[in-house]
């Protein structure tokens, strides 16, 4: 089986604002994340967490530096290949779910499966929704679902392609901690399927679910290792 190790070397992402001001969203950033790791990216608002996910997911290009994911040099690939790379390699879970409001839960998930040319997409979408505990809700539209259920649809959509890398941007941001725990448990369980999972949060308590926390401040890594106050099981997390 191929590996999808993530290797960032001296990566910077700068935004030019107006004529003179530059925002260094990521500043000479280097990190290695091995295939199959579950990692939390921790940092305050504006520290570069989303930018990091966007670069790994090839939603944006770095200003400088190199990014390898497995054998792909995604800092160099062309737009069309970026699309293929994203489709085949990355499952995104966005903070605000980004569900299509006029599609049912099932259609939201099946749509992504169809884009990824997954065979038997409807059946796969149903199975994926069952995995996240929404087997009874597949005909519901997003507005008929609670926030936690919508987030689970978003997770089912990220899982249906069976992509090796899951990028979750503040997946518990809108949820109470009981619902949040269910979501986090689902994400962490993906390790058993040999997936890499990156969970972004600004909440230090939540970061304790992982054995590795990469902490950001102003576009730089300030620490990388086990959580300072120790890893705790998800059932014990409160925030
Ligand atoms: N498209 C953009 N244009 C200009 N500045 C941006 C853009 N995206 C992000 N930034 C800036 O880059 C920094 C990091 O942003 P972001 O990665 O979204 O941080 P986080 O997800 O940790 O809150 C912030 O200062 C933000 O304002
Ligand atoms: Mg963000």
| Named CATH topology of the domain at 37-58 and 93-236 | Rossmann fold
| Class derived from helix and strand content | alpha/beta
User: What's the CATH first level of the domain at 37-58 and 93-236?
Assistant: Alpha Beta
Distance between the termini: 38 Å
Strand-residue proportion = 25-35%
Overall spatial form: globular
Keywords:
6-stranded mixed sheet; 239 residues; Rossmann fold; 30% helix; 7 helices; 4-stranded antiparallel sheet; binds adenosine-5'-diphosphate; globular; binds magnesium ion; alpha/beta
Topology:
Layout: E1 6-17, E2 21-33, E3 38-42, H1 49-56, E4 64-69, E5 72-73, H2 79-89, E6 90-93, H3 105-115, H4 121-131, H5 147-159, E7 165-169, H6 177-189, E8 196-201, H7 204-207, E9 212-217, E10 220-225
Parallel strand pairs: 3-8, 3-9, 6-7, 7-8
Antiparallel strand pairs: 1-2, 1-4, 4-5, 9-10
Bound molecules: adenosine-5'-diphosphate and magnesium ion (MG).
At a glance:
With 239 residues, the protein is of the alpha/beta class.
Description:
- With 239 residues, the protein is an alpha/beta fold.
- The mean pLDDT is 94.
- Helix 5 packs parallel to helix 6 (177-189).
- The protein has a six-stranded mixed β-sheet with strand order 6-7-8-3-9-10, with helices on both faces.
- The chain is globular, with a radius of gyration of 18 Å.
- The N and C termini lie far apart (38 Å).
- It has a domain at 37-58 and 93-236: Rossmann fold (3-Layer(aba) Sandwich).
- The protein is built from seven helices and ten strands.
- Bound molecules: adenosine-5'-diphosphate and magnesium ion.
- Adenosine-5'-diphosphate binds next to strand 2 and helix 1.
């Amino acid at each position: 089986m191929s590996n999808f190790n993530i290797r960032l070397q001296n990566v910077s992402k700068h935004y030019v604002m107006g004529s003179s001001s530059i925002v260094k969203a990521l500043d000479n950033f280097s990190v290695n994340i091995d295939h199959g790791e579950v990692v939390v990216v921790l940092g305050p608002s504006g520290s570069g967490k989303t930018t990091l996910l966007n670069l790994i997911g090839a939603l944006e290009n770095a200003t400088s530096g190199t990014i390898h994911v497995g054998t792909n040099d995604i800092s160099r690939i062309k737009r069309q290949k970026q699309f293929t790379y994203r489709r085949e390699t990355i499952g995104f879970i966005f903070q605000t779910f980004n569900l299509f409001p006029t599609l049912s839960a099932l259609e939201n998930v099946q749509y992504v499966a169809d884009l990824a040319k997954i065979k038997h997409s409807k059946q796969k979408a149903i199975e994926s929704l069952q995995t996240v505990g929404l087997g009874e809700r597949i005909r519901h539209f997003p507005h008929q679902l609670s926030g936690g259920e919508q987030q689970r649809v978003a997770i089912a959509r990220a899982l249906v392609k069976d992509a090796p890398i899951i990028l979750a941007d503040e997946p518990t941001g809108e949820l109470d901690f009981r619902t949040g725990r269910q979501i986090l448990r689902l994400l962490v369980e993906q390790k058993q399927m040999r997936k890499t999972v990156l969970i972004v949060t600004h909440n230090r308590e939540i970061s304790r679910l992982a054995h590795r926390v990469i902490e950001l401040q102003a576009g730089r890594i300030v620490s990388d290792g086990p959580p300072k106050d120790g890893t705790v099981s998800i059932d014990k997390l409160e925030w």
